[in-house]
């Protein structure tokens, strides 16, 4: 019976909207694909516009529908503004551990987020591409230090090797769920 008691297939206890932000090429779309479809596309072509992916997860006995927003083709600070951030409840700030500039730009992205959001937003710092250890330019310690300064959780991930990807998304979702309390919306 559709909708009965809110326990039917397709129903959920929470709808949580997450966004991935960071420089072009850091692996935002790959992380999204890995998390939502459990796949990785080595030749993933940058898409234009905004894409949504969906995944429903269970946390502490609650069904949580995640709406995951990608920002393909709009990865310069000035092009992501209020409209894009609207309704975002959590943001994954992503850099590439082999690209120092992408790490330096995290603070710029943060300023952009602060400038363009009025709602509370939980944030998490992600250093992606840990499988490329030989080309690493940003140490784990540097990442951890920045996250500490910014008062955020920190994860190093590999979208390619499927390392820590679920963990990062789950941690952010758990923080948001906690903030929303038992009776969201
Ligand atoms: P976006 O511009 O931030 O969305 O980055 P993409 O997801 O398009 O990824 C940019 C490039 O990095 C693509 O060639 C991906 O295959 C590659 N890439 C993404 N994540 C990883 C990773 O964890 N490891 C490696 N080795 N390559 C990755
Ligand atoms: Mg992309």
Automatic annotation (TrEMBL):
GO biological process, one term: protein transport
SUPFAM superfamilies xrefs: P-loop containing nucleoside triphosphate hydrolases (SSF52540)
Subcellular location: Cell membrane; Plastid, Chloroplast
Gene3D superfamilies with a match to the protein in the record: P-loop containing nucleotide triphosphate hydrolases (3.40.50.300)
Listed InterPro entries: P-loop_NTPase, Small_GTP-bd, Small_GTPase, Small_GTPase_Rab
MF terms in GO: GTP binding; GTPase activity
Main location class: membrane
Membrane topology: Lipid-anchor
A cellular-component GO term for this protein: chloroplast
UniProt keyword annotations, A-Z: Cell membrane, GTP-binding, Lipoprotein, Membrane, Nucleotide-binding, Prenylation, Protein transport, Transport
NCBIfam families per the UniProt record, alphabetical: small_GTP
Family: Belongs to the small GTPase superfamily. Rab family.
Record protein name field: Uncharacterized protein
The species this protein was found in: Guillardia theta (strain CCMP2712)
Source taxonomy: Eukaryota, Cryptophyceae, Pyrenomonadales, Geminigeraceae, Guillardia
């Amino acid at each position: 019976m559709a909708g009965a008691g809110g326990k039917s297939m397709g129903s959920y206890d929470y709808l949580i909207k997450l966004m991935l932000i960071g420089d072009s090429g850091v692996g935002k779309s790959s992380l999204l694909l890995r998390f939502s479809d459990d796949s990785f596309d080595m030749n993933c072509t940058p898409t234009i516009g905004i894409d949504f992916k969906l995944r429903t997860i269970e946390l502490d006995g609650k069904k949580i529908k995640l709406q995951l927003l990608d920002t393909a083709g709009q990865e310069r600070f000035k092009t992501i503004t209020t409209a894009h951030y609207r309704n975002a409840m959590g943001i994954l700030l992503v850099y590439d551990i082999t690209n120092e500039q992408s790490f330096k730009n995290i603070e710029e992205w943060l300023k952009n987020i602060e400038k363009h959001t009025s709602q509370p937003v939980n944030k998490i710092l992600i250093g992606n591409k840990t499988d490329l250890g030989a080309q690493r330019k940003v140490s784990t310690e540097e990442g951890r230090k920045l996250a500490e300064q910014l008062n955020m959780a920190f994860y190093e991930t590999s979208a390619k090797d499927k390392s820590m990807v679920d963990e990062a998304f789950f941690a952010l979702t758990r923080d948001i769920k906690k903030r929303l309390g038992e009776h969201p919306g």
